[in-house]
Specification:
homodimer; 287 residues; alpha/beta; TIM Barrel; 9-stranded parallel sheet; 9 strands; 13% strand; globular
């Protein structure tokens, strides 16, 4: 396992972590000032400043990307299917323009939440099947763009409204089906917050292989968790043994950026400098 | 699949559903007045009125039990281990006194939450291993008492503080290990709320077999879920296709009570009669 304690060379900031404190340009500048070498922007933050400005800002600051958030919301009724495909192809193109190594896919839950206006359904199995079908349909565009799709299993508490792929096992089963040669055109993003509870995660991480391990995100699980969406914990403040997961992914050959993605009303209410300085300190000590 | 639409002969009320409205005696009487044939009491509700009064009330009302809630919290540090074992043996004895068909086991999360005062740990794998060990240790007492232990996998959002067994697969793996002959001395309780998200649940329910399927609980998942503990939905108000899960368990030979267990600030704020009447109506139409 890599020693991260001496510097923060392999730290990446998911820009949602400080989305309330600055726009993308401000975040990029603040990261560059601290010698942070990578970011992972969200689409709405890029759209807010414009894709060209975002590309220029990242390039001028000498930053890399560890990912781009996000494609997905692949479940829909028939009337919303074309919108879903078009949007995912645009997300792939944006990721390529920004030089991202992958597009993170939050696959969607039941159609009425994934694509509002879709006919309501309670059929989670149908939604899960639709994810595989939709991924298959956008995969050629991703291949042409040289943009790997990183399926991110989300915590099961998001199954209804955000992602009906909730375990590494399930994500890898989809990868096996769509990319049996394991070229890595489709792979997974592992986030400690989403997978830490899973007794099965160890055998599943061992199954990934380096080419399919497209991203590694960290944050912590707080007890109690006061809000299902906006109460993620800073690394070290919760119950996740983060180094155990990093050890497991690095044993698969992962040698990329450790991306900190923290959706938290608490941390959003603090100054940008304080958040980034805390992230760096925790990265060096508890990740 | 059984037709439940004509009566409520196979309905059981988990007494936590109306714990704010009445004590156990009041709940038992209200159920009996409506021809509800079974309840599943909680230990603290039994303790509040006294075990002997509880036994008499259930007997005099002609009610059966569909379960007894709960044993468990099996994870602890060494200093709290004896307390944990003693308490589980007492819970087994109470379940037998009440004539319960099983003792529901909420297995505990990390030791510091399961047994307050225990040394804090982030090792969820160690907690999971401890669950199997502790179950093995109380199993002889359960066998002597003729009291099957029903492991209830809880939703993964409770992994840290309530139960580190979060899937049917994981529960059955423990059963396989402790009871390879599948006598049913240890089995599972399936609750739609906890398992509905799991793409793996269908193959795992198919693996249970009648003897290990000790209880079937229903309620619904609301979107949004405003509170992780106390915002469960009345059947029909959420996104779970409850009949699909009932069909799956009944295909395994399950022919027992369908237990409604609803922890909800909303429903706790309504009159006892309204809650029970709504439960009966929903049981007949959407379960």
């Amino acid at each position: 396992m890599r020693d991260l304690s001496n510097d923060h060379n392999w730290l990446s900031i998911n820009t949602a972590t400080v989305r309330q404190q600055a726009d993308l340009i401000g975040i990029v500048e603040a990261c560059a000032r601290r010698g942070i070498r990578a970011v992972s922007p969200w689409r709405d933050q890029v759209a807010h400043v414009g894709l060209e400005r975002a590309v220029a800002a990242v390039r001028d600051a000498g930053l890399k990307l560890s990912g781009y958030c996000r494609g997905g919301m692949l479940t829909s009724d028939a009337a919303h299917r074309q919108e879903m495909l078009d949007e995912n192809r645009r997300a792939i193109d944006e990721a390529a323009a920004l030089g991202s190594p992958c597009l993170v896919m939050v696959v969607g839950g039941l159609p009425q939440y994934s694509r509002p206006g879709s006919d309501p359904s309670k059929d989670i199995r149908a939604a899960q099947a639709q994810v595989t079908e939709a991924l298959a349909e956008v995969l050629p565009h991703a291949q042409n763009a040289g943009m790997p799709l990183a399926i991110e299993p989300l915590h099961p508490m998001y199954a209804a409204d955000r992602a009906c792929v909730n375990t590494v096992r399930q994500a890898l089963d989809i990868c096996d089906r769509l990319d049996p040669q394991r070229t890595g055109v489709v792979g997974v993003a592992i986030d400690t917050y989403h997978v830490w509870w899973d007794s099965d995660v160890w055998s599943q991480i061992a199954r990934i292989g380096k080419k399919r391990l497209l991203a590694f995100h960290v944050c912590d699980w707080l007890v109690p968790t006061k809000d299902m969406l906006l109460d993620r914990g800073m690394m070290g403040d919760g119950v996740i043994d983060i180094p155990a997961y990093r050890r497991a992914v690095e044993a698969q050959g992962f040698d990329g950026f450790v991306e900190v993605e923290l959706l938290s009303s608490d941390w959003w209410s603090r100054p940008l400098d304080e958040v980034l300085d805390t992230v760096i300190a925790r990265y060096r000590t508890v990740v």
